[in-house]
User: What shape does this take?
Amino acid sequence: MLCDKCKKNEAKLYYTEIINGEKKEQHLCEECALEYTSFSMGSGMFNKEITLGNLLSSILGNYQAPGSLHGTEQGEKEPSCKNCGMTYSEFLKESRFGCAECYESFQKVLEKSLKSIQGADTHNGKRPKGFETKTEKLVKELSEIDKLSIKLQDAVEKEEFEEAARIRDRIRQLKKEEMNNA
Assistant: This one.
């Protein structure tokens, strides 16, 4: 596929940018991507294997607070890993952490950067098929009576008294069945 900008070179990057709710999609070659996109891929980016780590470090490197050293306040020491000694600058350069402890060491800087990139530090989109939150797992393990008790409390709080009465009657029925089976 040819580049959408120059119409000469082969497109190596599919680029989607959303600015003020307006979506712009393009297929770009290396040169046009470096020239027209809002984040710098770095001169050697296309010579590297394109991985999630490479893209993330490239994006994070461009979303730092003005006048700050990689997300730190002016005069503040650059964060580094207590375990392996890797600095945040080295992480951005290498596109990967040095050890498992790096996640904890750079947590504050990463949270700031992710918040500035996507407006939040939590994911509120699609989840992989079969994914369950901790709360969903706990609810799944509850007995039917416990689940109904939670629904009963919710119905009372919402002042849905007919629904609450129906749930109460179902709980009584289940408890009676349990006693008869015991």
Observations:
- The radius of gyration is 26 Å.
- The chain has three domains: 1-38, 51-118, 134-181.
- The chain is about 45% helix and 10% strand.
- Residues 51-118 form one domain.
